[in-house]
Amino acid sequence: MDNIRKYLNEFVTQSDQDWEIFSSKLVRVEFPKKSIILEKGKREKFLSFIAKGIVRFNIPKPDYDFTFAFAFENTFVSGYDSFLAKTPSLYNIEAISDCVLWRITCEDLETVYDSTQIGDRIGRKIAEELFLKKMKREMSLLEDTAKKRYLDLMSEQPQLIKYIPQKYLASYIGIRPQSLSRIRKEISI
Amino acid sequence: MDNIRKYLNEFVTQSDQDWEIFSSKLVRVEFPKKSIILEKGKREKFLSFIAKGIVRFNIPKPDYDFTFAFAFENTFVSGYDSFLAKTPSLYNIEAISDCVLWRITCEDLETVYDSTQIGDRIGRKIAEELFLKKMKREMSLLEDTAKKRYLDLMSEQPQLIKYIPQKYLASYIGIRPQSLSRIRKEISI
DNA sequence: GCAATCAATGAACAAATGTTAATTAAATCG
DNA sequence: CGATTTAATTAACATTTGTTCATTGATTGC
After folding, report:
1. Closest protein CA to C1' of nucleotide D18, residue
2. How far apart are CA A145 and CA A152, in angstroms?
């Protein structure tokens, strides 16, 4: 749990008391590789901190499985839209590798928001952080070619390329696996 | 200013006292069509509510002008990344039509965050709202064709098509103006 | 370890979008 | 209004990505 506090401290300093209120709600859960952490159609009930592992956000479709995002160790993950709007999730969240999560329920988080000085601020900072990430991604999706997105991903997260199957990477980049193969071939030449 | 309070009330009910603290900081500013509200390279100092008009987010480039987002009446607008991280803005914000904004400075907003019960909650809700929008957009950019994005935009915001030059719409959709012309031609047939 | 399954590659052709350049239409400004 | 500038359209060709299908490579589970 120390990592969670460390992560939060980058955003905002909390009193020991507030941290106690928050951390007492956290529950440790393990998910084996390929298990589904959040199922499409169900409502997200948790905000989770990834202590170990990698997850993907995906929409299973008749023709193919659409992966649009990843989340990595030492970050928060949630079906945030479902969580916030209390609507059924539009996507799955799936463990790519064996994962360890620390989770807090929606209701408990509301309690934290209401009963601590700092709850809303943490929530604000997390939402702000998520927004900035999506904004960068929006620009990349509009401006860059698939090849550039792949090269960027390689240089920014080289270790991930090893653990994430290429078909998921391809989907994330916005192309088909065959096209990613083609790009990889070009690059290596 | 009533519209601002109305907008905020959809997120969170505020006490009259909190509203007074917040609204007393708001300053009305007009921007004529084509004027620059936030200049690339400068730091965003305001959170603004659009009382009237439409703005676009753009990056001016040697070869062409890249528009990646719009903001409309009765929503908040800001160079939020620059605002939050206190870094130079990566883009311009420009008035597409004559605009009326109500602005609060970064510093005043911090004061509101610190001196009201509700400041962080408003900030959280705004950031959450922005994040959800970007998430929907991410999926659309990955999944949909340019034609589908154009048709969606037409059905969701039909009035906008009238006011926003097509070259900006094309950029927003992720294609060149020539390609948008081609798509429009196909559709009308 | 082997069979079965799934992932990655490769090639040929189709579809979508980009690029360039010319033409027409619309907006702006005196 | 008329002249000038800017925006939108069109067309021809180039490039990128998608689609289909076959083949090879890697994993999984018994």
Report:
1. A176
2. 11
